[in-house]
């Protein structure tokens, strides 16, 4: 008997496949994949021979063609990314948000940006954080897992898709995921008062079924991030805010040091977020310095 499903978790050579009937099958992959240099990934759509239907045991026999493949986390067929940061405890690290937006832009993955813990800040402070990214090209949601604010709207944005959840530890990712579904209760951790960094509470990457056609990919927390881009001059193409401002004296223009730069003028006029621009310049200089060594 042949079954088709999605790999939702992989541990020590075993792959756990979520089938259309809601059951999860423990499967091994056929040796032919190793010979062909192919490795099943979490997120893959697969076919499997069912060896024991009652025990939910099978063998993966075929990998379907992937629509996308991420490097970090290593996952296939992601439709969109959900980047989660908190308004406070810890405060949002804007440069880290910029790097995450860049990573997914480089891989043509649409992004939802979520600011959580709305209950910890005043409205004006929340509005300021949201305004920095209002023109970045991503949909922005404000949530509070504690009182379920914005959860229904976020659920609708995830419906019918596989969404990869990213963001540092301590921002409430696990609590948000708990609000979104009932099948899995991710372990939540306390914030370290000394460093304001969350303890790493997610042990492995896995996909959590929200419904038959909706999945989220929970990933380990992190405190650092590498940008997978080599060309500093191409960085400007990934800033949606810069698109309307192309009338620079020099073409191409890096938008960093040149005179009569339309982007810099827009920043001075308040048309482009200064925080976003300053983050761009910092990333540009980092990439330029990397090329020298």
Task: Using brief descriptors, characterize the structure shown.
293 residues; alpha/beta; OB fold (Dihydrolipoamide Acetyltransferase, E2P); Rossmann fold; Ribonucleotide Reductase Protein R1, domain 1; 3 domains; 5-stranded mixed beta barrel; 7 helices; 13 strands; globular
Structure notes:
With 293 residues, this protein is of the alpha/beta class. The protein folds into 3 domains: 2-64, Nucleic acid-binding proteins (OB fold (Dihydrolipoamide Acetyltransferase, E2P), Beta Barrel); 70-218, P-loop containing nucleotide triphosphate hydrolases (Rossmann fold), CATH 3.40.50.300; 232-291, Probable gtpase engc, domain 3 (Ribonucleotide Reductase Protein R1, domain 1). 23% of the residues lie in helices and 25% in strands. The protein has 7 helices and 13 strands. The strands form 3 sheets. Strands 10-9-8-11-13-12 form a 6-stranded mixed sheet, sandwiched between helices. A 5-stranded mixed beta barrel has the order 1-2-3-5-4. Strands 6-7 form a two-stranded antiparallel ribbon. Strand 9, helix 3 and strand 10 (139-142) form a beta-alpha-beta unit. Helix 2 (94-106) packs across helix 7. The longest helix is centred in the C-terminal third of the chain and has 18 residues, at 274-291. The N and C termini lie far apart (56 Å).
Helices and strands: which structural class?
alpha/beta
Identify low-pLDDT runs: 184-203, 221-225
Order of helices and strands: EEEHEEEEEHEHEHEHEEHH
CATH topology of the largest domain: Rossmann fold
DSSP helical segment count: 7
- Rounded to an integer, what's the Rg over CA atoms? 21 Å
| Helix proportion | 10-25%
The oligomeric state of the chains shown is single chain
**Strands, total number:** 13
């Amino acid at each position: 008997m042949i079954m088709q499903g999605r790999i939702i978790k992989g541990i020590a050579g075993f792959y756990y496949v979520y089938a259309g009937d809601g059951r999860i099958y423990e499967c091994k992959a056929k040796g032919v994949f190793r010979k062909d240099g192919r490795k099943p990934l979490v997120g893959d759509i697969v076919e499997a021979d069912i060896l024991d239907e009652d025990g939910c045991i099978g063998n993966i026999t075929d990998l379907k063609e992937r629509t996308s493949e991420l490097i970090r986390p290593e996952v296939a067929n992601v439709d969109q990314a959900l980047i989660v940061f908190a308004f406070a405890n810890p405060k949002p690290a804007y440069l880290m948000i910029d790097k995450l937006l860049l990573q997914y832009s480089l891989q043509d993955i649409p992004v939802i940006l979520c600011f959580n813990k709305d209950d910890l800040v005043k409205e004006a402070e929340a509005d300021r954080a949201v305004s920095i990214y209002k023109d970045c090209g991503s949909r922005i949601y404000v949530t509070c897992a504690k009182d379920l604010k914005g959860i229904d709207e976020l659920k609708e944005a995830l419906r019918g898709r596989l969404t990869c959840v990213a963001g540092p530890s301590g921002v409430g990712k696990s609590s948000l995921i708990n609000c979104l579904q009932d099948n899995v209760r991710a372990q939540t951790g306390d914030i370290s008062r000394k460093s304001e960094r969350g303890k790493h509470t997610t042990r492995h990457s896995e996909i959590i079924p929200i419904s038959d056609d909706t999945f989220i990919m929970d990933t380990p927390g992190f405190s650092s991030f590498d940008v997978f881009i080599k060309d500093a001059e191409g960085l400007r193409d990934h800033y949606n805010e810069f698109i309307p401002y192309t009338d620079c004296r020099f073409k191409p223009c890096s938008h960093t040091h040149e005179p009569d730069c339309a982007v810099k003028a827009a920043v001075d006029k308040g048309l482009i977020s200064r925080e976003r621009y300053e983050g761009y310049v910092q990333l540009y200089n980092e990439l330029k310095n990397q090329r020298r060594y």
